Amino acid sequence: MNRIDYGIAILLVLLSVAGRAQDAGWIIESKPIDPNKYYGVTVANGMVGLVSSAEPLKVKDVILNGVYDYYQRGRVSNILKTFNHINMNLDVDGQRIGAAGIRNYRQVLDMKKAELTTTFDVGEKLSIKHTIMALQHLPYTAMAIVEIKAKRAVRVTPMSVIEAPNHLTDVHNLYSEIDRPHVMIPLLTSVGKSPSGKHTVAVSNSIIFQEPHGQEPDLIHEDWDYTMHLMKFNKDLKAGETYSFSVVASATSTEHYQDPLNEAERLTIFARLEGTQRLLQRHETAWEEKWKSDIVVDGDIQAQKDIRFALYHLYSFARAGTAYSLSPMGLSGLGYNGHVFWDTELWMYPPLLVLQPEVAKSLLEYRYQRLEAAKQNAFSHGYRGAMFPWESSDGGNEDTPVWALTGPFQHHITGCVGWAFWKYYQVTKDRVWLRERGYPVLKEVADFWASRVERKGAGRYEINNVIGANEWQENIDNNAFTNGMAITALRYATQAAKELGLTPDADWEQVASNIPILKFPDGTTKENAAYNGVDIKQADVNLLAYPLQLITDRAQVEKDLRYYEPRMSPQGPAMGNSVLATLYSRLGNPEKAYELFVRTYKPNEVPPFGVLAETAGGTNPYFATGAGGMLQAVIFGFGGLSITDAGILQDAKPLPAKWKSVQLKGVGVEKKNYIVRQGN
After folding, report:
1. CATH class of 375-542
2. pTM of the full predicted structure?
3. Tell me: the pLDDT tens digits for 399-451?
4. Active site residue 614
5. What is the topology classification, in CATH, of domain 31-290?
6. In whole angstroms, what is the distance from residue 61 CA to residue 52 CA?
7. Is 471 marked active-site?
8. Residue from 147, 471, 474, 499 carrying the catalytic annotation
């Protein structure tokens, strides 16, 4: 081999290695699977969430966004777990396969395509590949692709199954075949009522065969009972033969359609006639478009995967063009009843605002459409304006369980909503939206705070009897974060009025300038009037420096960090450390920031995929709030971005030693790229 050939060979090897490393940044592979310690990963499209299972050909749950009803859980509503409409069974030579009879069980999530692939062997007879996705371009439809490779001659009986969870009532199972000259469309359908009868929910699925019309296997429908029915077919395979088919499945409800039964069937027919390849291509193209807004870390492949995993979940759990928001657990299950908290506005919303403004707009539309309910809530508590509920579901009324005092007293959420609305305008400069959506909310938020304060003289417009970000201290006075958020929201309302050429209420600035931020004798910001140094659940005071930027003096920021960091309880949720990481990065201390960044999520990972629990050692994944906080440490800390009246600006700071660069791609409405390099 001459030198030129040798050089080309080396180059090809290096390119191959680089390509594998790049692909690795998109792949999450399950660790060895223990069914007793299995916390599934979710594939979702902002409307339907499919939660993976340790059982072959199954998903654990199907979550339908925007649909709430009462499950007898805490006497409050819960997001709906609907029919499991994409499960399958498989008989091999007349024997049903299960977890006990398979080998080499492996699950891999391709985040770039939002597809979960499970592979396994059935003894010495078959190799199975099973890929599921919630189709990104069809919000109510999912697809599973099955590939069966025979190792020896065998008869397989695949079954598409619909199962009803116990809480659904008045369930009816339907089966039909629509025959056309060039196609036969089988439809397996179920319809039922949500627990209280408030909603009708419906699902339908169909099989896409690879054979031409007239040569498809004969289908058999079996109606076992009200909770389960299926359609199945038999197929004889020769040794070495590979056979594939797909299942498309749609889920709807009266939250989305007046006639969910017929619409579920129509959507399934549409998907069935689109065909597997067209569906796959459009799904992957839609995700390719989403990933034009991405975070790329050079030099730390594990951090790259972890950051993208967090981003993948936020991209999966919310959707542009809707009026649905995000719960702390997204579409991964029934955690926190699927309710909407401050977790949305303060934690998950900022990364989406920067990378997916149209998705962020949907989260704000959710609040806008519930403004009247918030005004009624303020009225019932003796205040003016709008008082947004601590836990919100469908109607926007307070949906916190009665035993949790956060419902009546965690008022800072109203400021968080106002804060988020102004941030959207700062990023987009959409004046029409500000006039029609933003200012109406900001005005009512400001009126609430002006009525909420207790006016006790100059510098003493107090906000008493609240619960702050640190929920472990209840019914406290002059909480730092609550007061700081009230000041911020009042001033943002004033800015919004002036931006629209309106005269703001002069009382808003009068109130804002007289709300106190308490201090200890040594100048450290005091969390609340009664605070005495006990451990705290999460950051509170530090939120005044970021994201509120009410405290900008470096010495003060550092003083508050030194005091509160050692008081952060290890039993607290992930978000607190992400705030500290962001602040240390902005202060130019990248190694301390990196230490805290890792602490925001690594202790919270659970097997086999490393999905995030709320707390270290917790078991309630996926905690999308923590993902939002972790991403903020990257975007607004290491990435140096800030959302200001001048738009998105960058002030790059030093990176951790192991990171060569951080690139923020497709930022804002102009889809700009920002990069920070080591040594800049």
Report:
1. mainly alpha
2. 0.95
3. 999 999 999 999 999 999 999 999 999 999 999 999 999 999 999 999 999 99
4. yes
5. Beta-galactosidase; Chain A, domain 5 (2.70.98)
6. 8
7. yes
8. 471
